[in-house]
Amino acid sequence: MKYIFRLFKVVALAILFMVGALPLCFAQKLLNQKISITANRQPVSEVLQTISQKGGFYFSYNSTEVPGDSLVTFFAKDQSVKNVLNLLLKGNFQYKETDEYIILQRAAEEKFIYITGRIFDSETGNAVDYASVYSKVYLLSSLTEDDGSFRLKLKERVFPFTLNISKVGYADTSVLIQSERNIDLRINIHPQAIDLDEVLVYNAAGDHTWLARLFVNSRLRAQSKNIGRFFVSLPYQASLTPGLGTHGRMSSQVTNKVSVNLMGGYTAGVNGLELAGWFNISKKNVRYVQLAGVFNVVSGHVEGLQMAGVHNHVLDSLVGVQASGFGNIIAKNLKGIQISGFFNKTSGGFHGVQLAGAANLTGQDSRGLQASAIINRAGGNYNGTQLGGAVNIVKKDISGVQIAGLGNVGRREVSGLQLGSVNYAKNLKGIQIGIVNIADSSSGYSIGIFNFIKNGTGSVSVFTNDIVPFNIAWKTGSHKFYSILMAGSGIGHQEKAYTFGLGFGKEFRLGRALGLVTEISSQNLYLGSWENAPVINRLQTALNLSLSKRLSLSAGPSFSLLHNKQVEAKAGFKQFPPSSYAIFSTGKTTSSWLGWQVGISWNYGSSL
Fold first, then answer.
1. pTM surpassing 0.70?
2. Per-residue model confidence as pLDDT tens digits over 503-542
3. Where are the beta strands (DSSP E) in 209-268?
4. Facing residues of 600 across strands?
5. Is residue 566 a contact partner of residue 534, using CB atoms and an 8 Å limit?
6. What are the CB-based long-range contacts (under 8 Å, 24+) for 343-349?
């Protein structure tokens, strides 16, 4: 029963609606009559009289409102009286039927007025799509459809005003709209060859980032290109999304002092404060403060504070502070501070500080501090400090400090300090400290276990000394400073001993074939047990005589300092300190003596 009752209600309402509509249909029987009429420069009052005669009714109107003396020319065939009146009176009147009369009354003015028309190519006659039709004064705009048509909504009836038409590849066109009667237009625009500067178009449009293309629709981007030379400054704007706000589709041409975007905004720029729940996209410059929950994209330069929850992208330069949760990208130069959770990239150079959770990348000359958990890379000369959890790289000259957990690279001249497990410099003029140090040429110091100088020197030495009779040493670096890896062994039933250690040395040139060598080393002694193994620290000097280009002979005195907690040597191993030398006791576990060393070396490398 419930469903039957609902069906009855629906049917009853439909019947009432149809019954109510019947009087309306009959009420407009005079206006719906079909007539044909031709007028050639006739007064409006005469045309109204002709219409009344053809329709068999009378007109009632105020002669002060109806322009009876105006001359009109038009043709209508088999048109309703209502349509004929619309043509005659330009749609400015409303009509009411009473018995045999049609009453003409001035139509109430609408709040808005619409300007419509079509845009055509003056040479081909084809419709022009994606052309911008706009008012510079009222900041209203429209974009033509595929057939060249447009519809522009005016909030005020202010005439005359200028309508502007712009499209890339066409000359800008202006049309003066004199009155409400000029609201259905046919406009021809002229093609114009333009040599576009790629860099200027890139910076002005701001549409070349994938974020801008994702969040700004193609029609807004097309209009932005069409009217890219027109900009205006206003106090404020508010928007929900790009194109939906106080400035409508003209928002991309307006620089605001205060801009508030609930989700996201697309503006010309900011000269004050801009806030967004999701994103800000600016075609020109931003000054002072720009904050977004997700990202900021700026085509010009930024001066001030820019912060985003995920990403900042500036297509020009930044002066000030930039911070994001994931990454920052600057197409030109940075002066100030960049902070990101993952990476910073500056295609130009920077003067200041870059801090990143993973990587800092610059493309040109820079100075300041780079600090990251993984990698820092400078594409030009660098003057300052690089602190990297893994790697620091400078493509040109560096004057400063590189400190990394894994390695440092200076691809040209390095003046300063490289501190890492592996260090490389093309031309070392500073100091390298690491396990492995590599340089093509060096006038500085490489301090490490392995030092490889391509244009330096190295040697393999076989020698005997007062500790054990058989020793071998590998020396790498340069005459100025080299590192030493050494090992030795004793022989004999009661004279066994094994040594290994490292050290560093320097050779002073006394002549073409003669040099003075000074070396410091630290060696461990194995005397049958690793527990409390003795350690010998040794200073030795020697004259080094070159026998040939590759062979040299050296000999000289030494001073050894022994630290030994072993009470006595194991059976078959040599006793230390050696009893045959004058021993100077410096404590219960330390002793020293004067000794000697004689050896021969095979020298390699290009600097001998």
1. no
2. 999 999 898 889 999 999 999 998 888 888 899 999 999 9
3. 232-241, 244-245, 254-261, 264-267
4. 462, 553
5. yes
6. 348/317, 349/380
